[in-house]
Specification:
Layout lengths: L3 E6 L3 H11 L6 E7 L3 H11 L2 E3 L2 H5 L5 E4 L3 H13 L3 E4 L8 H14 L3 E3 L7 H10 L2 E9 L21 E7 H7 L5 H8 L8 E6 L6 E9 L3 E8 L3 H15 L5
Parallel strand pairs: 1-2, 1-4, 2-3, 4-5, 5-6, 7-9
Antiparallel strand pairs: 7-10, 8-9, 10-11
Helix pairs in contact: 1-9, 4-5, 7-8
C-alpha cells in the first residue's frame, strides 16, 4: 500500500517532534518527503537529519506532490502558502491558527478547500474540547470566553510586557478584550484562542483575558461556554509547547484512522 506523502513547513522545535514521531512509528501511513523553512541553511540541516528534500520555495515543495502539508511556522506562512497548498493538491494541517482571525482569509480558505476537494485541518495546539464547543454552538446560541495564565517572561518582546511584570507578587491582568484583538498584538502567543473561537462563536465574539502569574511555568487556559442546552468549562495546562506538535500528529493519525475521535 502506497504511503501518503507528508511535507512540513517550518524546521524548528515543533516539526522536529513531528519528524521524530514519524521515525518512531506513530505515523506508519506517511513518509516525510519535503520541508520548507525561512532559512535555507537550517532547512537543509533539518532535511539531512530527517531524510527528506529541502525546499527553497513553496513551488519546490508542491512539486513533491504531498498528500498532506503540516505547518508549524507562523501566521504569515499560513497566509502566504495556504491557498497555494490546497490548490496544489495537498491537504493542509494548520497550527498557526491565528491566520484565521481574518474572516476574509478564513472564507477564502474554505472556498479554496471546497473547490480543490482538499481539506484544511485545524490542529488543537495547546487546548482541546473542540467537539464539545462545536456541538454546543449548534444546539443553541452560546457565549464563549477563554482565560490564559502565562509567565511574565513569556510576554517579553510583546506589547503587553513591561519591566515591572518581572517583580509582581500576585497575578496581574495584562489583557482583556476579544480573541481577534489578542491575536493582533500577540500573533504567536494565542493561536489556541482563535481555534476556540472558530469552534464556537467566532474571534470577534469570544472574550479573552490574559494574566501574568509570578513563578508560573508553561501555559494554562480556561475555556468557558454557556448556552441554553449546554454549559462547559475546560481547563488545560501544558508545561511546554510540545503539546502543539503532538496535536499535529493526532490530526494526521485521525485523517487516516478507520475509527475517528
Amino acid at each position: 500500500m502506497r504511503k501518503l506523502k507528508l511535507a512540513l513547513i517550518g524546521c524548528g522545535y515543533l516539526n522536529e517532534i513531528v519528524a521524530k514521531a514519524l521515525k518512531d512509528g506513530y505515523l506508519p501511513e506517511y513518509e516525510l518527503v519535503a520541508v520548507l523553512g525561512r532559512d535555507y541553511a537550517r532547512t537543509r540541516e533539518f532535511a539531512d537529519r530527517n531524510g527528506c528534500k529541502a525546499c527553497a520555495d513553496i513551488a519546490e515543495l508542491l512539486a513533491m506532490k504531498p498528500d498532506y502539508t503540516a505547518e508549524a511556522a507562523s501566521v504569515k506562512a499560513v497566509q502566504d502558502y495556504g491557498e497555494a497548498i490546497l490548490n496544489g493538491g495537498s491537504n493542509f494541517v494548520v497550527l498557526s491558527i491565528g491566520a484565521f482571525a481574518e474572516r476574509e482569509f478564513y472564507e477564502r480558505m474554505k472556498d479554496t478547500a471546497a473547490q480543490s476537494k482538499r481539506r484544511a485541518y485545524i490542529a488543537s495546539g495547546a487546548v482541546g474540547g473542540f467537539d464539545v464547543l462545536r456541538t454546543a454552538a449548534l444546539m443553541s446560541p452560546v457565549t464563549a470566553s477563554i482565560g490564559a495564565q502565562k509567565a511574565p517572561a513569556s510576554l517579553k518582546n510583546t506589547p503587553l510586557f513591561t519591566p515591572e511584570l518581572m517583580d509582581i507578587t500576585a497575578p496581574c491582568e495584562v489583557f482583556s478584550g476579544t480573541t481577534k484583538e489578542a491575536i493582533a498584538i500577540l500573533p504567536t502567543k494565542v493561536n489556541v484562542a482563535i481555534a476556540t473561537a472558530l469552534a464556537s462563536v467566532g474571534p470577534e465574539n469570544t472574550a479573552m483575558n490574559i494574566k501574568a502569574v509570578p513563578g508560573f511555568k508553561g501555559d494554562e487556559y480556561k475555556i468557558a461556554i454557556q448556552g441554553e442546552e449546554v454549559r462547559a468549562e475546560l481547563n488545560i495546562y501544558s508545561r511546554t509547547s510540545a503539546i502543539a506538535a503532538w496535536s499535529v500528529i493526532a490530526v494526521l493519525q485521525n485523517a487516516v484512522a478507520p475509527i475517528v475521535f
